[in-house]
Specification:
Residues 128-350 form the ATP-grasp domain. Its EC number is 4.1.1.21. In the C-terminal section; belongs to the AIR carboxylase family. Class I subfamily. There is one protein chain. By secondary structure, the chain is an alpha+beta fold. It has helices at 34-45, 76-84, 98-106, 115-122, 124-133, 147-157, 184-207, 209-218, 227-230, 282-297, 333-336, 341-350, 375-389, 421-433; strands spanning 26-30, 49-54, 67-70, 88-91, 110-111, 141-144, 161-165, 175-178, 232-236, 240-250, 256-258, 262-267, 270-276, 303-312, 317-323, 363-370, 395-399, 410-418. The radius of gyration is 22 Å and the shape is globular. The termini are far apart. It binds adenosine-5'-triphosphate (ATP) and magnesium ion (2 copies). Residues 139, 162, 164, 169-175, 235, 237-238, 243, 266, 269, 308, 320-321 line the site of adenosine-5'-triphosphate (ATP).
Length: 440
């Protein structure tokens, strides 16, 4: 094997085991969910060692990672310990302890993307402020601190009005819509409930359930802090005709490489289907790529980024949000592009040349396997669908091996590639049409 072509930056430490792969360094990933798992799969092709930090002993990445440290990616001491064992630190989730990342960077730890990027993106309001300062088109937005502020936003932006949690949002958990002024309070209360659940979850993972119950008993007030106290903002409702996304790879030398624009279709705020390439006019694709390029250029550090966009009826493209990591809208790239988003991320953080993001098949469609039921019945339904998928030409089944089946949980995905958009859509239809016919 050839020696590493990684830059000096990635060789900051000498206390890793020497290995003879494409790169000699160990890549540390904060988080070991499905994205971490697919990073490990791409890494194994090049004998790159990926180590993950995740609190779950049997997290999706654990069985294939080079190493798995069991611990919280949101805990300072644990992240410090983990970083000592890796040459470059990256993320599969943005909800990590960014203050620790900043400290680590000051001590010379190589974080990619940079902690400054994670800090901006973790707070969706700060993210919006950042991108608007960089001249990127966005839906109108406004920070709100109380009900009066929410009413002012309603008067200004009209209804429906989108409320968003600044932090810890994913799969639409953190969003609430007020259809009119009367619904303002319930939208805000919805947020309050959500943020409190997140807060409780965090406490449970840090302190354990017994301590939590004790704390609850002595400080009930802690839990009555409202949604406003924890941070909310509002966005003008965007009546989009399509949602688009662009995966962008950014090298350590700041080279930028964009994947073809895709269309994402959400079901109850969760990404459900991705169509690649997006069926939109060439000018719109160019515009979307331009915005994605500009957005990622405004951030610091290497890696793969996902840029979520809205396409409006009058042909405007607006940025919804950016993820500083691999993304669900890029899963199709494993089968349909010369370099998958996961390989691209590894290449980027290691300082290797970026690969070719273009599609090697004319069309691809990705279908998320979302939990349809809890426990065994849910597994049964998913396995029925997988059984049908395996009989369809051009399909690849990915199962994340999550220990628990829950409703709406991302359990796996199926990608279908083919010679035209029409063909892959027809294949997907035939896979889904039979749904239920086999159930007794
Ligand atoms: P994830 O990180 O999983 O993509 P999230 O919790 O960060 O999701 P958003 O991306 O902000 O949530 O929103 C989820 C979905 O809600 C979007 O994909 C879109 O369908 C819808 N949505 C978000 N903002 C608006 C808006 N301003 N107007 C209309 N619909 C919106
Ligand atoms: Mg998000
Ligand atoms: Mg989103």
């Amino acid at each position: 094997c050839h020696a590493s072509t990684a830059t000096n930056d990635t060789s900051l430490r000498k206390d890793y085991l020497p290995v003879h792969g494409v790169s000699e360094v160990i890549v540390g990933v904060l988080g070991g969910g499905q994205l971490g798992r697919m990073l490990c799969q791409a890494a194994s092709e090049m004998a790159i060692k990926v180590m993950v930090l995740d609190p779950l002993v049997n997290c999706p990445a654990s069985s294939i990672a080079y190493d798995h440290m069991v611990g919280s990616f949101d805990d300072s001491e644990t992240v410090h310990e983990f970083a000592k064992r890796c040459a470059v630190l990256t993320v599969e989730i943005e909800h990590v302890d960014v203050a620790t990342m900043e400290k680590l960077e000051q001590q010379g730890v190589d974080c990619q993307p940079k902690a400054s990027t994670i800090r901006i993106i973790q707070d969706k309001y700060l993210q919006k402020v950042h991108f608007s300062r960089h001249g990127i088109p966005l839906p109108d937005f406004m920070k709100i601190d109380d009900l009066e502020g929410a009413k002012r936003a309603g008067d200004l932006f009209g209804y429906p009005l989108m409320f968003k949690s600044r932090r810890l949002a994913y799969d639409g958990c953190g969003n609430a819509v007020a259809k009119n002024e009367e619904e303002l309070t319930s939208a805000v209360n919805g947020r309050m409930f959500y943020t409190e659940v997140q807060f409780l979850k965090k406490l449970v993972s840090h302190l354990g359930l017994t301590t939590l119950v004790f704390l609850y008993a002595i400080d009930e007030q802690q839990f009555t802090l409202g949604g406003f106290a924890r941070g909310l903002y509002v966005e003008k409702w965007t009546p989009f005709v399509k949602e688009l996304a662009v995966i962008v790879g950014r090298g350590r030398d700041n080279s930028i490489s964009c994947y073809p624009v895709v269309e994402t279709i959400h079901k109850e705020n969760i990404c459900h289907v991705v169509k690649a390439p997006a069926h939109v006019p060439w000018k719109i694709r160019e515009h979307a790529i331009d915005i994605a390029h500009k957005a990622v250029s405004s951030l610091e550090g290497a890696g793969v980024f996902a840029v979520e966009l809205f396409l409006t009826k009058d042909g405007q493209v607006l940025l919804n949000e950016v993820a500083p990591r691999t993304h669900n809208s890029g899963h199709h790239t494993i089968e349909s592009c010369y370099t998958s988003q996961f390989e691209q991320h590894l290449r980027a953080v290691l300082g290797l040349p970026l690969g070719d993001p273009s599609m090697k098949t004319p069309a691809a469609i990705m279908y998320n396997l979302l939990g349809e039921d809890e426990g065994e019945p849910g597994f049964h339904l998913a396995h029925q669908l997988i059984g049908r998928a395996l009989n369809i030409q051009g399909t690849a089944v990915h199962w994340y091996d999550k220990p628990e089946m829950r409703k709406q949980r991302k359990m796996g995905h199926i990608t279908i590639v083919g010679s035209s958009v029409g063909i892959v859509e027809a294949q997907l239809k035939s896979m889904l049409k039979e749904e239920g016919s086999e159930t007794q």
